[in-house]
Structure formats: C-alpha cells, structure tokens
C-alpha cells in the first residue's frame, strides 16, 4: 500500500503549512501572476487593480516587462508556473490533504523549479541593472513578496526528498541492505 495511515491534516502542522502555502499560491497564480501572460481584456478589473497596487508599491521591473526581449527568461518562468507549478499546487493540495506520498516526486521537482526560478528573480532585482531604479522601500517590498516564494518551495523540496528517501530506505529488502 502506497498511502500512509490517515492522520487528519490538522494533526500534521508542517503539512498544514504546506497545504496553506499551495492554496494561497494557487490563488495568487491564477489571479495575479497570469496577468503577465494574458491580454488585459481577459483579466477582471478587480484583479488588474491588485496587480497595479503591487506594481506601484514595488516598482517591480520584471512583471510589466515580461514581453520585452531582455526578459524572455522571466516570461518562460511565468509559462512554467502555469504548465508545471499550477498542476503541482493541485497535486500538493491532494497529497497533503490525504497524507498520500505518491505525489512526493512531483513536489520535489516543483520545489527545485520554483526555488531556483524565484532566486533568479531575486538576483535580478538585487544584483542586476534594475537595482539602481529601485528605492530601498521598493526593494524591501519586492523581497517581502519574493523571498517566501523561494524559501517555501526550497523547504518543501528538501522535506519531500527526505521523506522519499526514508520511505525508500524502509522498503529496501533486508538482503539489499547488507550488500
């Protein structure tokens, strides 16, 4: 049997935290991040205002420039968010709700992609040419928004890797352990 004993989500605080992160990130991706990929006429006005408020506070150079040739890497990051990460959010919600380890390998891949993609964004606004155009309060606001979306996936990746390794070790036949 691949599933573990069912322990309610509320009794698994780390999984509850991951579940909440995936739920919030799914909402943010579908309501805000998607605006970097679709024409404005397809985005409800209220969601356009949320993005505009973020851009006013942050002066984030990446989101409004996603279609500029210099930022093609960022556009591909947004595309990967919808092709790879959004499905991983849905799988992650299922995995943590049901305490089902079958999704751990996908969550390891998600964590690696999301952590390092967001790290690229952080590097761009802290060490790239864009840094000189950001006031300290803008940079602080950007980092408050980017850093959690780098750290959580990194922690999830490491945790799922550790859980998977433990499960694999626990299911290794005794004769293979002695060789």
From TrEMBL:
<feature type="domain" description="EXPERA">
    <location>
        <begin position="14"/>
        <end position="157"/>
    </location>
</feature>
<dbReference type="GO" id="GO:0005789">
    <property type="term" value="C:endoplasmic reticulum membrane"/>
</dbReference>
<feature type="transmembrane region" description="Helical">
    <location>
        <begin position="139"/>
        <end position="158"/>
    </location>
</feature>
<dbReference type="Pfam" id="PF05241">
    <property type="entry name" value="EBP"/>
</dbReference>
<feature type="transmembrane region" description="Helical">
    <location>
        <begin position="72"/>
        <end position="97"/>
    </location>
</feature>
<keyword id="KW-1133">Transmembrane helix</keyword>
<protein>
    <recommendedName>
        <fullName>Efficient mitochondria targeting-associated protein 19</fullName>
    </recommendedName>
</protein>
<keyword id="KW-0256">Endoplasmic reticulum</keyword>
<feature type="transmembrane region" description="Helical">
    <location>
        <begin position="104"/>
        <end position="127"/>
    </location>
</feature>
<dbReference type="InterPro" id="IPR051987">
    <property type="entry name" value="Sigma-2_receptor-like"/>
</dbReference>
<keyword id="KW-0812">Transmembrane</keyword>
<keyword id="KW-0472">Membrane</keyword>
<dbReference type="InterPro" id="IPR033118">
    <property type="entry name" value="EXPERA"/>
</dbReference>
<comment type="similarity">
    <text>Belongs to the TMEM97/sigma-2 receptor family.</text>
</comment>
<dbReference type="InterPro" id="IPR016964">
    <property type="entry name" value="Sigma2_recept"/>
</dbReference>
């Amino acid at each position: 049997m691949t599933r573990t004993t069912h322990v309610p989500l509320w009794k698994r605080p780390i999984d509850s935290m991951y579940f909440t992160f995936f739920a919030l990130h799914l909402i943010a991706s579908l309501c805000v991040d998607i605006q970097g990929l679709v024409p404005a006429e397809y985005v409800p006005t209220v969601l356009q205002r949320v993005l505009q408020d973020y851009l006013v506070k942050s002066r984030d150079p990446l989101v409004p420039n996603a279609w500029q040739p210099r930022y093609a890497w960022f556009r591909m990051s947004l595309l990967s968010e919808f092709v790879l990460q959004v499905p991983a959010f849905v799988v992650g919600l299922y995995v943590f709700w049901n305490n089902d380890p079958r999704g751990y390998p996908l969550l390891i891949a998600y964590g690696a992609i999301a952590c390092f993609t967001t790290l690229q964004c952080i590097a761009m606004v802290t060490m790239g040419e864009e840094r000189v155009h950001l006031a300290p309060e803008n940079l602080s606001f950007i980092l408050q928004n980017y850093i959690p979306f780098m750290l959580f996936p990194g922690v999830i990746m490491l945790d799922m890797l550790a859980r998977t390794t433990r499960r694999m070790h626990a299911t290794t036949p005794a004769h293979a352990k002695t060789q």
